[in-house]
Design a protein that fits this description.
single chain
Length: 264
Amino acid sequence: MSVNPVTAGFSSLGRVVLDVTPALGRITLYMVHSFLWFLRPPFRWRLFTKEIVFVGNKSLFIVALTASFSGMVFAFQIYSGFTAFSVDSFVGPIVAIAVTKELAPVFCGLVVAGRCGAAMAAQIGSMKVTEQVDALEVMGVNSIQYLAVPKIFATVVSMPMLAGIYMLIANVGSYVVGTKILGIDASQYFAKASDFMKLTMIAEGLIKAAVFGYIISIVGTYQGFAVRGGAEGVGKGTNLAVVWGMILVLVIDFFLTAVLTKIL
């Protein structure tokens, strides 16, 4: 008996919708619960400080390394295009705008998603399969407040700081390449930056970084709590945390850019 292609297509679409809809509902409820537990005492400042060190301080070297080389290579690419029109004096301002509005928040988001999002999912997932999460609940400690809220809060706070450091290092890297290697006059490199750069651009980059931090931490901790099936489930949850964290950073960046450009 032949299968109607149209019917098969609608059946496949229906299965996808039925699979995705409950997942969206669960993660939405998780976001609401984590926010409500954030507002309720006790406030676990020791755990928050520990997560700040993990997310912020221990990501600093990777962010600095990424920032320096991305700033340098971006200066090279912009210079190669602008020299055709004899406007190499605009390399500095254009690099500064690109780094501030896009490269800093997005690259920091990808770095933190790969490093910290995976660690969050792995830690909580390991506790879930070894029944340590259940033990917390038995002792009267809410697992979301104890395990997830400090991580989410610390990531939201750390990401703008990492993005600010990224902006500084990337612009220094582009300045070094532009003036020492490409031969752009040092006094002219950032001379026109004030004509193009605005404080709202820096604000846009920092707001994006904070939102990305929230998304990455929500996905990482949620995937940890959703782990099932022992060590194999921990590996799967870690992989999903990284993949979805990176995808959402890139997707949400588009919508944030559209909204913030209108507002700021």
